[in-house]
């Protein structure tokens, strides 16, 4: 079987592809982690973000949503200075902003997961691409969710970032059809 080509650049990428990418998750903490990491990736490679993932987990208390929502400006500045995270202050501030928005969504929808998964009627979209070049950078769904998230105050959630996020949490399966990790091959 031919696998997706994109993760073959590093063992870290390959492990992420094999164990996490496009696998449905309904866990708010994990979903928030992926939202944060995808936002951190803006303008950078996913490999850079994955290499810093452990530092992000340490800096943000394993992406505890309430903890992140309560971070002060001083806390964020300390994270910027003391952890090997991406040093872009607006991206770091978005962790707090987005955590606060997630808490509001949890009150309204009972979970961040329920809020997101309702866009696909709680069933992942399973694509059947023949090769990596067919995978889009965004979709009508990512545009729709991006608009909704922005309206609710989220930052770093443009349609392209949102599409990658949907892949990360398994709402979209974009493994190429011949990849052994495609939903229909597992």
TrEMBL record:
InterPro entries registered for this protein in UniProt: Adenine_glyco, DNA-3mA_glycosylase, DNA_glycosylase
SUPFAM superfamilies: DNA-glycosylase
Keywords of this entry: Metal-binding, Zinc
Presence of the UniProt keyword Metal-binding in the record: yes
GO biological process: base-excision repair
Key word Zinc present: yes
Pfam families per record: Adenine_glyco
A GO term, aspect molecular function: metal ion binding
Signal peptide: none
Record: residues binding Zn(2+): 4, 17, 175, 179
UniProt-recorded name of the protein: DNA-3-methyladenine glycosylase I
Native organism: Salinicoccus hispanicus
């Amino acid at each position: 079987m031919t696998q997706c080509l994109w993760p073959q650049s590093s063992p870290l990428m390959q492990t992420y592809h094999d164990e996490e990418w496009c696998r449905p998750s309904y866990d708010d903490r994990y979903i928030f982690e992926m939202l944060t990491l995808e936002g951190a990736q803006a303008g950078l490679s996913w490999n850079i973000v994955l290499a810093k993932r452990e530092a992000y987990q340490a800096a943000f208390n394993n992406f505890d949503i309430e903890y992140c929502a309560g971070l002060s400006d001083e806390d964020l500045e300390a994270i910027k200075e003391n952890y090997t995270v991406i040093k872009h202050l607006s991206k770091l501030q978005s962790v707090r902003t987005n955590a606060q928005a997630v808490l509001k969504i949890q009150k309204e929808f009972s979970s961040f997961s329920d809020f997101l998964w309702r866009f696909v009627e709680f069933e992942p979209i399973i694509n059947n691409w023949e090769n990596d070049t067919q995978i889009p950078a965004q979709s009508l769904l990512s545009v729709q969710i991006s608009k909704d998230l922005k309206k609710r105050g989220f930052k770093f959630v443009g349609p392209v970032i949102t599409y990658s996020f949907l892949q990360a949490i398994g709402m979209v399966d974009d493994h190429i059809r011949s990849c052994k990790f495609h939903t229909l091959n597992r």
